[in-house]
């Protein structure tokens, strides 16, 4: 099995190429929306590295790019799809990026008119309009509105995508 060394600002993490492919697929999914160009760029970069036998290392030195990788890892974690190599990557990236956990109240508006409320804590930083919300079942919810609430929490209004 081929391993790639992901070079972070303070350390390096060895991850199997197949695990990087899975991460690249998730980045590509997040990048398939109008505001997802940075995700799509990271998906291409990591996907290419995972397929090229001559590539043995990838530098992940940009904090903004690493935030996108963390977000993709958060989506994989919500569906319990993190392998041990990706868990190591998440832990190392979290140490470099140092995202602040953010608690949200989600308001999900179904197409049939139903509404559902859920609580969520993001471990990859804040969410904004256009972002996709991680779910355990892989359903697709996109943030359409961000509203502060009186109790200090933030409400994310989400529509199905």
What is the gist of this entry?
The chain is an alpha/beta fold and 161 residues long. It has helices at residues 17-30, 37-51, 63-78, 84-97, and strands at 3-7, 12-16, 57-59, 102-109, 115-122, 132-133, 141-148, 154-160. The protein has four helices and eight strands; from the N terminus they run ββααβααβββββ.
What does this structure look like?
The chain is built from 4 helices and 8 strands, in the order ββααβααβββββ. The protein is of the alpha/beta class. A 5-stranded mixed beta sheet has the order 5-4-8-7-6, with no helix packed on it. A 3-stranded mixed beta sheet has the order 2-1-3. Helix 1 packs antiparallel against helix 2 and helix 1 packs across helix 3. The longest helix is centred in the middle third of the chain and has 16 residues, at 63-78.
What attributes characterize this protein structure?
4 helices, single chain, 3-stranded mixed β-sheet, elongated, alpha/beta, 37% helix
